Amino acid sequence: xxxxxxxxxxxxxxxxxxxxxxxxxxxxxxxxxxxxxxxxxxxxxxxxxxxxxxxxxxxxxxxxxxxxxxxxxxxxxxxxxxxxxxxxxxxxxxxxxxxxxxxxxxxxxxxxxxxxxxxxxxxxxxxxxxxxxxxxxxxxxxxxxxxxxxxxxxxxxxxxxxxxxxxxxxxxxxxxxxxxxxxxxxxxxxxxxxxxxxxxxxxxxxxxxxxxxxxxxxxxxxxxxxxxxxxxxxxxxxxxxxxxxxxxxxxxxxxxxxxxxx
Amino acid sequence: xxxxxxxxxxxxxxxxxxxxxxxxxxxxxxxxxxxxxxxxxxxxxxxxxxxxxxxxxxxxxxxxxxxxxxxxxxxxxxxxxxxxxxxxxxxxxxxxxxxxxxxxxxxxxxxxxxxxxxxxxxxxxxxxxxxxxxxxxxxxxxxxxxxxxxxxxxxxxxxxxxxxxxxxxxxxxxxxxxxxxxxxxxxxxxxxxxxxxxxxxxxxxxxxxxxxxxxxxxxxxxxxxxxxxxxxxxxxxxxxxxxxxxxxxxxxxxxxxxxxxxxxxxxxxxxxxxxxxxxxxxxxxxxxxxxxxxxxxxxxxxxxxxxxxxxxxxxxxxxxxxxxxxx
Lengths: 262, 327
Hints:
The structure holds two protein chains of two kinds. Chain A has helices at 44-51, 74-80, 96-102, 116-128, 144-157, 174-191, 202-208, 226-231, 234-239, and strands at 4-15, 18-29, 33-37, 59-64, 67-68, 81-84, 162-166, 194-198, 211-216, 219-224, 241-248, 253-261. By secondary structure, chain A is of the alpha/beta class.
């Protein structure tokens, strides 16, 4: 029996009067890491935004532990699911610590302050993401990598069962890209948080996830583990490039490179 | 940084309270009839039938209190709008919320003068109407910050034209149309104080109670929703609160611009964007600014009075341009 934490049923989404997703079905199993890949404008971000209630679907449902998220209160969702959005820009100048404390918003009543548990979890989240030494810095003074870790700290301070990330590595250099991905996979292994992330880099997707979901032409084109995605013709069909795949001896995972445009 | 320290923020608030006291004293001393500081409190406490008592109790004291209340309302309204509209240039007068309130208020005043008691409510409806027009016009898959100002300018012009039209058609019924258009505290007294006081108290309490929600909303809609904030309800609630504060100010002093722009911004520059500290500081600075400006407007060309709105425009317009260049 599969343990489904997040289920997408017959989901259709329009964005700016254009049909972006049509009839998507997807099951996310507890404890796994999923990556969503696909060509530009295929609806990856739309899918993850609909899964997090940021976009209203035209049709279909998103079920979190069996409950329809469009009928749940934002607070109830936030206790179970956290979202790290794409390029978070903000006119806010909060300190890292304050930002991470906002992650506790759903867990307390609005008229009450932070209790001991909130403080402990805030500290824990900052240590996990290596921003404890930055806690009094303002987020607008941080570098891209530091800022992304601070947002991640806020997300895990929610103590979610599942974490959605929308292109968490965009605009970061390669070192900070790996840093975030290592961190995410560590959170999965050590804290058991289910991960669903949209990634641009196919090698990152196959390297860091249990399952890769390929979106193409308004729906899920295929879904499977790293080998099944890279061995087949999927990448060539979806991205229009000729590929070559080799094995990384250290991780036993495939690595691919694009040879030429078809 | 210094401005991130809690102690510094509290220090600024204490300093503003001292300024408030000074502004209050200066406002009561200054004028054709000079009153000794010591006498001010004597005549406030006891009615000794002296000319000082007359001037202080009937004119200067209520006017200073009214200046403080109006300053608080407009400054808080601006601070809220900047947050919910994610636009640092939002101000109730610039984006048309004040003129919406003004139009609806003046229609009641002129066309249905028997319902004068409904002016604040009509003004509130007008302000909300203006706010929703702005949202509708500037919404395109989320709030577009530049479109807000453009839509606001259009909405402001539209309602402004409506007000001018009414003032022309009913010129016989409108007294002090000019002071309404420019915002003035001239010849306002206790009745206006009692009209606006409940709004100021309620507004001040509500903004401070819910400050944290606005802090979270400023992080962005998706982020705020992600941590569990009901984004739509929060935005609606705060917009209504901003409209409510601006409308009550407009119903007693007319269209007074720029307070909601200058004050929250100066506070942001001094002590950052945390609304928990910003709201009290903004309310205080709004009071201080309007008390000083009104004292100046009243005494500078004495015996002629300048509408305080003109003083605010002279200070505010260059400040607006300064902010525009900084963005």
